[in-house]
Structures are given as C-alpha cells and as structure tokens.
Amino acid sequence: MASPLLDGDPAAIGPYRLHGRLGGGGMGQVYLGLSPGGRPVAVKVVRAALAGDAEFRIRFAQEVRAARRVGGFYTAQVVDADTEAGPPWMATAYIPGPSLHRAVGDHGPLPLESVAVLGAGLAEGLGAVHAARPIHREAYLEQAR
C-alpha cells in the first residue's frame, strides 16, 4: 500500500527503481521498489542527517549484518544493501498488504481466530529476530502485516 513518490524523492536507489513510499521513521524513509528483474522490494533509505554520522553508519552496518542472519517464514528477508552508499540503504523482500494498524482502522477489531493466528506469527517472527541478536531501533504496529 504505497503512497506516491514526492518531489525530491529519488527515482532509484542502487539497482532498484522506486515506485512509491511505504512509510518512514526517525531513521529514514522506506520505499516500494522493483528489482531489475521486476521483483518488488522494500528499500529502507537512511536520512541524510544520519548518513553523515560515522557512528550511525557503523550501527546501520551492524543492523544490516544482523538482519541478514534472520530467517523464518514470518520475516522479510534482506535481499541487498549498501552501507557505504550515500545515503546507505537496505532492501528486503516486499510483503504486500495493509499494516495491522490500517486493517484495524479500516475494518475494526479482528476476529478472535485471526488474532490468535496473528499472535502466533508475530511471536515466531520476533523469535527469529531475537535469535539473530539484532540491535533494536524501531518497532511499530504499522510494521505488522
């Protein structure tokens, strides 16, 4: 569920053509992109203010290494990254669909059975993330799909 690119947004990051905005936070912006072969990806691009911070770049490189170790059915796999680029970025598999926040906002509370399935999937995904021992920075309801 991407919103349109804005004036000033890049047309491409690395080999990925950007087609919309998926979200953003304190660290940067996440775009919907397409690989050269046409595969959809989510491209996380670091904000310019942080990209110039040497310590931040080191932490971002650590985050990318940790994210590459995460596996599991309920996580988006890292497919590419360039922590030395200006600005640094990471591309993950794109998982289509509304965020949990939007789904509940649009349709109201989920049925109990759906909550149970979602809870089990989130627990399995978080277990895979914690097993990789990443550095947690941002975790939002909007990220749940």
TrEMBL record:
InterPro entries, per the entry: Kinase-like_dom_sf, Prot_kinase_dom, Protein_kinase_ATP_BS
Keyword Plastid: no
Manganese found in the keyword field: no
Keywords (A to Z) from UniProt: ATP-binding, Kinase, Nucleotide-binding, Serine/threonine-protein kinase, Transferase
Domain of life per record: Bacteria
GO MF annotation: an example: protein serine/threonine kinase activity
Gene3D superfamilies referenced in this protein's UniProt entry, alphabetically: Phosphorylase Kinase, domain 1
Positions of ATP binding: 44
Residues covered by the Protein kinase domain: 16-145
Record-given protein name: Serine/threonine protein kinase
Organism: Streptomonospora nanhaiensis
